[in-house]
Inverse folding.
């Protein structure tokens, strides 16, 4: 796998339409993705002392976090609205190589901060709800 630029790792929010159109959340300087999975152990006396796990079982989730400079874009406003109303929305992560991950997410954290005579910045966290599709 070739190295990819971090600036090409983009978070996009859906417009609520059908089909969904995605807009890049402007101002993000950093983005992080975590794929999480819980395991289901099926270890028994027949395991020979080794732990055995059940494939395909357990709960999987995707967590996304980001931080950036507030620009007042429409996509940032939609994320803020989603956070305030506690609703799920469609989000997409896109990567330089063309791969995407798309799913429904809940904004679990949205923080704004700013220094006197400096820019306003924000951090956000998203948690998946349902399947996240990689294409």
């Amino acid at each position: 796998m070739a190295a990819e630029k971090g600036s090409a790792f983009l978070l996009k929010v859906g417009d609520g339409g059908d089909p969904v159109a995605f807009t890049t959340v402007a101002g993000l300087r950093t983005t992080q993705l975590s794929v999480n999975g819980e395991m289901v152990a099926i270890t028994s006396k027949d395991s020979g002392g080794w732990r055995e796990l059940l494939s395909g079982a357990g709960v999987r989730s995707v967590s996304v976090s980001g931080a950036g400079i507030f620009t007042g874009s429409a996509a940032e406003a939609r994320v803020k609205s989603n956070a305030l109303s506690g609703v799920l929305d469609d989000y997409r992560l896109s990567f330089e190589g063309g791969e995407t991950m798309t799913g429904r997410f809940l904004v679990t954290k949205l923080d704004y901060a700013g220094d006197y005579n400096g820019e306003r910045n924000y951090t956000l966290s998203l948690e998946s709800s349902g399947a996240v599709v990689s294409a």
Q: What stands out?
A: The CA atoms of residues 18 and 50 lie 49 Å apart.
